[in-house]
Design goal:
Shape of chain B: globular
Structural class of chain B: mainly alpha
Distance between the termini of chain A: 19 Å
Largest sheet of chain B: 2 strands, antiparallel
Radius of gyration of chain B: 26 Å
Helix content of chain A: under 10%
Shape of chain A: globular
Radius of gyration of chain A: 32 Å
CATH architecture of one domain in chain A: Beta Complex
Largest interface: A-B, 81 and 92 residues
Strand content of chain B: 5-15%
Structural class of chain A: mainly beta
CATH architecture of one domain in chain B: Alpha Horseshoe
CATH topology of one domain in chain A: Ferric Hydroxamate Uptake Protein, Chain A, domain 1
Helix content of chain B: 40-55%
CATH topology of one domain in chain B: Serine Threonine Protein Phosphatase 5, Tetratricopeptide repeat
Oligomer: heterodimer
Distance between the termini of chain B: 58 Å
Number of strands of chain B: 9
């Protein structure tokens, strides 16, 4: 709505000078209805539809005060000019004044809970393909980790205020326009704003789904007024941020292998004659030095278009938008396309009744090689330099490796010979709503919504041949055939769909009694239901393996619901349902003392009837000290100071669907009596506890908000303590129970932390600039667990959940350490060789054994932080955004770390490995991965790498062209920008990006991307 | 706060208002693809389904085809890294400890999964409306399987926990272990019931009387109750239900194992598989014997085993004139070539195509028994047809057990030689009779029976437990070295395996075995 809240005042000041001019917004667009007032008088006017004004100023002097809701007020001395043009800058604070909260909105000033908002405008400063990743570094307390830049598989993990559970999910609840949806499906340009609910007070209105916090996404609605057509185009070039420095000289590789093999007890050696041939370089086709990383990892182009039309008449508003993303990968064989469509429409059918709809559609189309992600990356690393993708005879035949007996995985090119996989996902989030305002203060809002996901998946693999580069078949004298072959031969199709209907209805009553008592009451009902179903079928025999349709294959050996670990998960058909009633009361006295209480009663099908209903209450209070007269009257540089506190309970129902039912499993349970036919069997597989309850989280939060001198400094601070109890987790049981472990309520965990956000905004002349800084820290401690789990991570009371629990690496065994009684015995390597890893004997008993493992910091970051600067001058805007993680450590192994893991070349640093002559104390003697003198201590700090980083997450330079330019093409605005993502990263992490899905596991990962963008914004 | 009653009313009203429907059952959501235990056990078909569920547990780990890997813990074969049964090689070089996971954990947990399934069946079968006679037969099958599982446990771990019933609460599982003797007597209780109630007929897939008798005999000889074992074995031999197959190699391939009434008459109990929908392994990873043995070369027989095979004239290699050091594998006991892929041997499939894709062997030998070369060349897709039954018990074993037990009771007598000779004279093997002049005392014949047993049952998963029950594992194994040169280690404490540390953590009443 455009607020026409001005009053036209004309003074009868007789002879004056007429001052006129034009008021425009930051993009140069005309602003109608802006109040222009002569300071200290009631003499004022308002701009017309073209943004022009004219005011009679006595004497031609004085100061104009130009104000408009949503923009920063400006005071401009007239200085005897007759034309004063003004460009207004938007008031970020004012724009966010009204904040989306659970089942409604609220004035920011009146908030008592801990929540944060980000505008879509801020998010789209970074033109990255996946909307969810854009939240990284934008909200305190929200840790966003992007697993990789793999197209369509780059969905980040969200963690709000630390890990709350070790049984159920740690994912926050994501609601799009109030109902379940997927953040990753959104087009970033469709996002109006995002609210993150962090504490119990703000989140408990979502009760049993809110324990991990709630993320509310609001899509762009139309605004009354002229239709605005916006178009944005973005072209990006993606490049890997970091790659390992693998040895690509074949002869060096072979010699290092030959040095390593005897150590590992491996018989195979590269023949010296062949090493010489590789070394000589006379036949580079047959004896290449092949750089697989360079060959397979290449820059990719990503384009992105979005077009929207929005506007509205007197009684209705609309926003229609279309989005298109076309993303290639850093590796060949991939393509990802996303099509988005959004329709938001609302109309007032009478003064009291508004109806509306939201239709948000996404179609994602992904083509990929048959292996993706980590398996793809590690295969590239595993292919040593001795062979390229094809045989040198020009036949186009694929090479599998050089020698039959060398370390092996498939050669990468085999994947491309093998086939591909395709995923087509259709998403629909459809809503209809009705708001009725029968009388002043009362609103009845109802919404019916449907989230529908339909996914089609296809794996197609054909038989193929691959050959050894250096070995000949004695009978044919041709290259010897040798390959693993396809792993899921034929065509495997999978259809899956899930549907989530949601219905909710709320009554809100706003009233004021007496002079100073403001009261708002909300009561509501909600129910939701989820169902998924799927079908998978596979056929393998055909005369034409090139066909990828099931019906092109023979029916013999066909199978349904064929299981394979590399196929996407095939969740069994399931249903769950929730029903809830909830209420919220807001009371404030003189807008100064704020009080809020929430109560939600949730029932879920996931819990047995006797324990089904759970109550989730919260209370919060706020004190706007800045409204107190002692402050307001005495200290005028404080705009706002508010103290807040909250306490409440949240639940986590994101656990298994059928945890309490005592059922017999029949799926895939068969026995072929007499070898003739399969007989259906039934078994009990899991011990069930009927008395499951909700997993619950109590959050205590204290904080304050401070803003000084109209944005010169803004501070938001929060301290929280989050206790999760009755954690629903698979409890360890003795294996002699003979059943899978039951899920039981047992376990307590605490997260405590702080969050601080500082903002600064100012304007000097025509230069506007701003800076912001965010930092969050959360410390996790396990308070109770039934049975500790102690492996290379430890799950034990008093420690961080799953903290690194490792042997402390203490250098390298030197020759004189062998047999030296002063050197502790190593239980996992009782007869060490010089050049093996040496560990520290923590308890000094002369034995390095399981008791000598220690907790090592680094499973969680000490803190995460971000900061940014922006500066604007006329149409130019430069904005930088840094983001960092401090104190995280990754324990990574395998390809790229361990030399010769499945043939993976060592990195360059291994040229400096330990030898009797080169007594390194940092690198062991070169070995073939799996060698016991190193591998037995994979649970040691030797493999731990500091994954702290600070990176220039984004740098954007934009320029809004002056109106003389864009008005020629009849546009209302025209902007261009260049931007870069992940431009540089400061880290000690070697050879790969420190940001990855897990802090442990295989080093090899699909790379993260550095992105260069150019883009264009046009408005008509 | 709302009382529960008022609340329900409020909710129903809300439902009615919003949806116009009753919400009574809205939150009742039950699994869509499994049966509630409340309504099961209503018909005989349910009982048969439950029974198939118990049998299906036999397809797991060492109760299924992977049992052959137990020979990798013995002097018969070196076992390469096996993703599904990890650390088996480590177990042979001194790494057996409560902290060792992988195969060691499976050796303990798998039998208990069988036992719990059996107990669930036995505790519930009474609910079904079937005749007493039928119920006894079903129970007998289940108790046979339970005995098979307990026998596995007691051989591996000695004293173990006995569960007679399905646990009604978690703490029921956290009890102390019973002594080995108590476990054995529990096994005999089950087997005696099974022998009394199972049908006395040929084995085709369901356990029969002979299966239970054969297992009982094996339990008795493990207990060294020779005199008790002899009559049980004689009953089997006199029953006429079982006989030696005339194709040794075929015993281990689907075609030779047969189905239904054509089931190979030598097989007395097996874990069955059937392609394409119930094969040995599709998850995790496409595998099964053809791939694991014939392609990945997981089992690599030691030369120690190969050298133990006699020459065709029945003499050991160092005594026989047939032995040619330049051609050491010629003229050997035919079972050698049917059990082991020898150096220089070429594998071909039925159409004559050469299969040479096996991974390099480090011992020089590969396992051939159980490898179905008609399916070569082996690829990942071979998994979907790999369905050899694992043979737990076969008639040759009964004859060898008889020879062993009878020799212990009475010393060499005609029936002992006859039993041995029958095994040696199998059609297609035709080894000469035992040299009665040479093996004429209980002691010499005992060693010879042990030798014959090693040869006949090589790589079938028997050797490890045989070495243990003969109490010679700690003497024999350290005489061997692994391909990387590490001496094999078997300490006296290793006659029983340790419980996993997690078992002790999760069950405070369980005490660790001595020595760990």
């Amino acid at each position: 709505m455009l607020p026409f809240l001005f009053v036209t005042l004309t003074g009868a000041w007789g002879q004056g000078v007429s001052v006129s001019g034009k008021v425009s917004g930051e993009n140069g667009e005309a602003l109608p209805g802006v109040t222009v007032l002569l300071k200290g008088t009631t003499n004022g006017t308002a701009t017309d539809a073209e943004g022009n004004y004219s005011l009679n100023v006595p004497g031609g002097s004085g100061t104009l005060v130009i104000s408009f809701i949503g923009y920063l007020k400006q005071e401009i001395p007239i200085n005897n000019r007759t034309t004063v043009n003004v460009a207004l800058a938007p008031d970020a604070k004012a724009l966010e004044e009204v904040v989306v909260i659970g089942y409604g909105t609220q004035n920011k000033a009146n908030l008592t809970g801990s929540l944060a908002t980000v505008s879509g405008r801020t998010l789209t400063e970074r033109p990255a393909p996946n909307a969810a990743t854009l939240l990284q570094g934008r909200v305190t307390g929200l840790q966003v980790t992007q697993p990789s830049a793999e197209p369509g598989r780059d969905n980040p993990n969200f963690l709000i205020r630390g890990r709350g559970s070790f049984g159920g999910s740690n994912d926050p609840l994501v609601l799009i326009d109030g109902v379940t949806g997927s953040f990753n499906n959104l087009s970033p340009d469709d996002i109006e704003n995002v609210t993150v609910l962090k504490d119990a007070a703000s989140a408990s209105i979502y009760g049993a789904r809110a324990a991990n916090g709630v993320i509310l996404v609001t899509t762009k609605k139309g605004r009354k007024g002229q239709p605005v057509v916006s178009y944005r185009a973005n072209v990006a070039r993606h490049m890997p941020t970091a790659l390992p420095d693998l040895i690509t000289n074949s002869a060096d590789y072979m010699e290092m292998y030959n040095a390593a093999a005897p150590r590992s007890g491996i018989v195979f050696r590269y023949p010296q004659a062949d090493i010489d041939k590789y070394r000589s370089g006379t036949d580079p086709n047959q004896y290449p030095n092949f750089d697989n990383v360079d060959y397979y990892v290449n820059p990719a182009t990503v384009t992105n278009h979005s077009l929207s039309v929005s506007g509205g008449g007197e009684k209705n508003t609309y926003n229609i938008s279309l989005g298109y993303l076309n993303q290639d990968a850093l590796l060949p064989g991939y393509n990802f396309k996303r099509y988005n469509g959004l329709l938001n429409y609302s109309t007032e059918i009478s003064k009291a009744v508004t109806i509306g709809t939201t239709m948000n559609m996404a179609y994602k189309d992904r083509v990929e090689p048959p292996f993706t992600g980590e398996p793809m990356a590690l295969t590239i690393y595993a292919a040593g330099p001795l062979y390229g993708p094809f045989l040198p005879d020009g036949s186009g035949r694929v090479v599998s490796r050089a020698y039959d007996l060398e370390g092996r995985n498939r050669n990468v090119q085999e994947y491309y010979a093998m086939g591909n996989q395709k995923t087509k996902e259709y998403n629909l989030n459809a809503q209809a709503y009705l708001d009725v305002r029968p009388f002043k203060g009362l609103t009845w809002s109802s919404k019916v919504a449907l989230n529908y996901v339909d996914e089609f998946y296809k794996m197609h693999q054909q038989p193929y041949d691959a050959y050894l580069l250096q070995e000949k078949d004695p009978t044919t004298n041709d290259y010897k055939r040798s390959t693993f072959g396809p792993d899921i031969l034929g065509v495997t199709d999978q259809y899956s769909k899930s549907i989530t209907p949601t219905v909710y209805s709320t009554l809100t009553y706003d009233t004021k009694f007496g002079e100073n008592h403001n009261l708002r009451i909300l009561a509501g009902y909600e129910q939701l239901f989820f169902r998924n179903q799927n079908l998978r079928a596979r056929r393998t025999n055909t005369v034409a393996p090139i066909l990828d349709d099931l019906t092109g294959y023979l029916a013999d050996n066909q199978s349904l619901y064929f299981l394979h670990p590399r196929l996407p998960s095939l969740a069994g058909p399931s249903e769950w349902a929730m029903q809830s009633v909830f209420s919220r009361v807001n009371y404030n006295f003189k807008n100064k003392y704020l009080l809020e209480a929430n109560l939600r009663n949730d029932g879920t099908s996931k819990v047995s009837p006797g324990y089904r209903w759970g109550l989730f209450p919260s209370v919060s209070a706020g004190w706007l000290i800045s409204e107190e007269s002692f402050l307001r009257d005495n200290i005028n540089w404080i705009d706002q100071l508010k103290l807040r506190g909250s306490y409440g309970t949240l639940g986590n129902q994101d656990v298994g669907t059928y945890l309490y039912q005592d059922n017999l499993l029949i799926n895939n349970i068969v026995y072929p009596f007499n070898n003739s036919t399969l007989t259906q069997g039934a078994v009990v597989n899991v011990f069930r506890d009927q008395s499951l309850r909700w997993e619950s989280t109590r959050v205590l939060d204290f904080g304050f908000d401070l803003s000084l001198r109209n944005g010169l400094l803004g501070v938001t601070f929060d301290w929280f303590r989050k206790n999760t109890f009755d954690i629903l987790a698979d409890q360890p049981v003795p294996a002699s129970l003979g059943l899978n472990s039951p899920t039981l309520n047992d376990g307590k965990m605490r997260n405590t932390g702080v969050e601080l956000e500082l903002t600064h905004q100012n304007r000097i002349g025509e230069v506007t600039y701003g800076a912001n800084f965010q930092i969050s820290a959360a410390k996790n401690e396990l308070l109770h667990i039934r049975v500790p789990r102690i492996e290379s991570s430890i799950r034990k009371v008093g420690y961080e959940l799953d903290a690194h629990y490792l042997y402390e690496w203490d250098g390298i065994f030197q020759v004189e350490d062998i047999g030296n009684p002063g050197v502790p015995r190593h239980a996992l390597n009782p007869t060490p060789k010089p050049g093996d890893l040496k560990m520290k004997d923590q308890d000094g008993d002369g034995d390095v054994d399981a008791d000598d493992r220690i907790v090592v910091k680094g499973a969680y970051p000490d803190y995460i932080y971000s900061f940014g600067f922006n500066v604007g001058y006329k149409g130019f805007n430069l904005s930088s955004f840094f983001q960092g993680v401090q104190g995280l450590k990754n324990r990574v192994t395998g390809w790229g770390v361990d030399p010769f893991h499945q043939g993976a070349a060592p990195t360059e640093k291994w040229r400096n490995a330990w030898t009797p002559e080169n007594r390194s104390n940092t690198l062991p003697a070169i070995y073939v991965a799996g060698y016991s003198g190193v591998a037995n201590y994979s649970g040691s700090t030797y493999y731990l790498q500091d994954a702290s980083y600070l990176r220039l997450k984004n740098l954007i330079l934009s320029y809004d062209l002056p109106s003389v330019v864009y008005s020629r093409i009849k546009a209302k605005g025209l902007g261009v920008y260049v931007s870069g993502d992940n431009l540089f990263t400061i880290t000690k992490y070697e050879g790969s990006d420190p940001e990855r899905a897990s802090t442990t596991g295989n080093f090899a990962q699909y790379p993260q991307a550095r992105i260069y963008n150019v883009g264009l914004n046009v408005k008509f | 706060m709302l009382t529960k009653h008022k609340f329900t009313f409020w909710l129903s009203t809300a439902c009615l208002l919003v949806l116009g429907v009753s919400c009574k059952d809205f939150l009742e959501r039950n699994p869509l693809n499994s049966i509630s235990s409340q309504i099961f056990w209503a018909t005989e078909a349910d009982v048969q389904t439950g029974l198939a569920g118990v049998y299906s547990r036999l397809q797991q780990n060492f109760l299924g085809y992977e049992r052959v890997y137990l020979d990798g813990l013995s002097d018969n074969a070196f076992l390469w890294d096996n993703g599904n049964q990890q650390n088996m090689y480590n177990m042979t070089i001194g790494s057996i400890s409560p902290a060792l996971g992988g195969a060691l954990a499976n050796m303990y947990s798998t039998p208990y999964r069988v036992i719990t399934s059996a107990n669930y069946f036995l505790d519930n079968v009474d609910k079904a409306p079937i005749t007493e006679a039928k119920k006894n037969t079903y129970n007998a099958e289940v108790r046979f399987i339970r005995a098979l599982a307990y026998f596995d446990l007691v051989q591996g771990f000695g004293d173990v926990i006995i569960y007679r019933n399905y646990p009604s609460k978690l703490d029921d599982a956290k009890i102390a272990k019973s002594t080995k003797e108590e476990v054995y007597s529990f096994i005999h209780e089950d087997l005696d019931f099974a022998i009394a109630n199972l049908p006395d007929e040929k084995y085709t897939g369901h356990a029969v009387k002979g299966s239970a008798q054969g297992l009982k005999a094996r339990v008795l000889i493990t207990q060294q109750k020779w005199a008790e074992a002899v009559p049980v074995l004689q009953q089997i031999m006199n029953s006429g239900k079982f006989s030696l197959a005339n194709n040794y190699a075929g015993l281990f391939l689907k075609a030779g194992q047969g189905s239904g009434t054509n089931t190979n008459a030598e097989i007395m109990f097996s874990t069955q598989y059937l392609a394409p929908n119930n094969v040995q392994r599709l998850s995790p990873g496409n595998a099964g014997m053809d791939i694991e043995l014939g392609w990945w070369s997981l089992m690599q027989p030691y030369k120690d085993l190969v050298d133990d095979y006699e020459m065709r004239d029945g003499k050991p290699t160092n005594e026989s004139p047939l032995f040619d050091p330049a051609n050491p594998y010629a003229n050997r006991d035919p079972r050698l070539d049917l059990t082991v892929k020898l150096p220089g041997e070429v594998w071909r499939n039925t159409t004559g195509v050469v299969w040479n894709g096996s991974y390099e062997t480090q011992t020089g030998f590969l396992m051939e028994k159980y490898v179905d070369l008609s399916r070569a060349p082996f690829t990942i897709s071979t998994a979907i047809s790999t369905d050899q039954d694992y043979v737990h018990l076969r008639y040759a074993d009964v004859l060898l057990m008889y020879a062993e037990a009878k020799n212990e009771v009475s010393g060499p007598d005609a029936t002992v030689y006859a039993a041995l000779n029958q095994v040696r004279a199998r059609a297609g093997i035709n080894m000469p009779p035992v040299d009665q002049a040479k093996y004429n005392t209980k002691e010499t014949l005992r060693d010879y029976i042990r030798h014959e047993r090693r040869i006949e049952l090589a790589l079938e998963g028997q050797r490890y437990n045989d070495l243990k029950r003969w109490n010679i594992a700690h003497i024999k194994l350290p005489t061997l070295k692994s391909p990387s040169g590490a001496p094999l280690i078997f300490e006296t404490k290793n006659y029983v395996l340790p419980f996993q540390q997690s078992e002790l953590d999760n069950n405070p009443n369980l005490l660790q075995n001595t020595g760990y």
